[in-house]
Amino acid sequence: MRKKSKKIEEIIRVNHAGEFGAKRIYQGQLSVLKDHPEIKHMLEQELHHLDYFEKEIVKRKIRPTILSPIWNIAGFALGALTARLGEKAAMACTVAVEEVIGEHYQDQLNNLKDDKDEKELRKKISKFRDEELEHRDKGIEFDAHQAPAYPILTGFIKLASKTAIMLSKKY
Ligand SMILES: [Fe+2]
Ligand SMILES: [Fe+2]
After folding, report:
1. Could you give the CA distance from residue 169 to residue 138 in angstroms, rounded to a whole number?
2. Which of the ligands is closest to the CA of residue 17?
3. Tally of CB atoms within 10 A around 17
4. Counting Cβ atoms within 10 Å, is residue 11 exposed (0-12), middle (13-18) or buried (19+)?
């Protein structure tokens, strides 16, 4: 039986919430930019990430965030609204969110680097970090930087993502 430390609990809870939010963002984008192959591919990867943390939440008996009804609506709205501004704005949203998640996963890896009981978790987080950074790079490739009001747009989305992370750890 694995020990259930508060640190690990928060890691699983926040990652589960984050992957759920990512799923909702890409679903929101696809509701506007139908059948966009790159966005569809990113959504598929988010579903794998979410599936992993979903199983961990159950296996380790961790309470999921109570904020998921908010992330459900806010994530979808963020995806759909940015996509309505155009493909470049949708990609700017991707750059902002994935940059924050990539850093967030890297912080966790630094934090877990000596935890011998959590090798599998580290392996997954490391793989997901790479994929999130691929998503960010895809956004850059699709001219995210040419989106209208890029610095304001991404600044706002980064701040919102960081706030969501902070809240989903505890609540
Ligand atoms: Fe993800
Ligand atoms: Fe991602």
Report:
1. 28
2. 1
3. 27
4. buried
Nearest-angstrom CA–CA distance, 104 and 168: 13
| Cα 14 to averaged position of ligand 1 atoms, centre (Å) | 12
What pTM was estimated for this model as a whole? Answer: 0.93
Give the number of whichever ligand sits closest to the CA of residue 97: 2
C-alpha 1 to ligand 2 mean position (Å):
31
Cα 42 to Cα 52: distance, rounded to the nearest angstrom: 16
Residues 17-54 pLDDT 10s: 999 999 999 999 999 999 999 999 999 999 999 999 99
Residues in contact with 165: Cβ distance below 8 Å, sequence separation at least 6, in sequence order: 14, 18, 100, 104
CA of 131 to the centre of ligand 2 (A): 6
79-98 pLDDT, tens per residue?
A: 999 999 999 999 999 999 99
55: phi then psi, degrees, rounded to nearest 5: -65, -40
Interatomic CA distance for residues 157 and 92, integer angstroms: 9
**pLDDT range class, residue 108, cuts 50, 70, 90:** very high
